[in-house]
Amino acid sequence: MPSLIDLRRRIRSVKNTQQITKAMKVVSAAKLRRAQDRVLAARPYAEIIQRMLANVAQAAAEQNAAEEIELRMMTLEGILSIQAGDNPRVVQEKLITFVAPADRVDVQAACTDAHVALERHRMFGPHHMPIRSPLRGSGG
Q: Is the same domain home to 19 and 62?
């Protein structure tokens, strides 16, 4: 059985530990209170930033949705025209109507290049690549 001095030391040790624990609780409560105050003070700024980001995301989603719908309509129109057996030039003209007037010249040039490539494929096969020689100009 422990002696009286050992019991007193044990009691004093427990009381010291309790005092330290109480002091730590007070310190942690003060830190928590300060952190909560900072969060509450920052809340209006967070709401403003959240609204700004939501507006940007919504605008981007609306723009992407409009572009996606236009692309799907264009693809569907092309597929239906090809299935109907329309002339490729007619299909080209139908699809160009989806493009803004300022960009139509570029699209028509790209379509012309595609038609040239298709004709080369029909005439010479899929592996025909024009040979360009610095001495002879362009070869074929």
A: yes
* Residues 79 and 104 placed together within one structural domain of the fold: no
Cβ-based burial of 14 (10 A; exposed 0-12, middle 13-18, buried ≥19): exposed
CB of 70 closer than 8 Å to CB of 98: yes
Query: What total number of domains does the chain contain?
Result: 2
Per residue in 54-109, pLDDT tens? 888 888 777 777 777 777 777 777 777 777 777 777 777 777 777 777 776 676 66
Share of the chain above pLDDT 70, in %: 74
Domain ranges, residue 57: 1-84
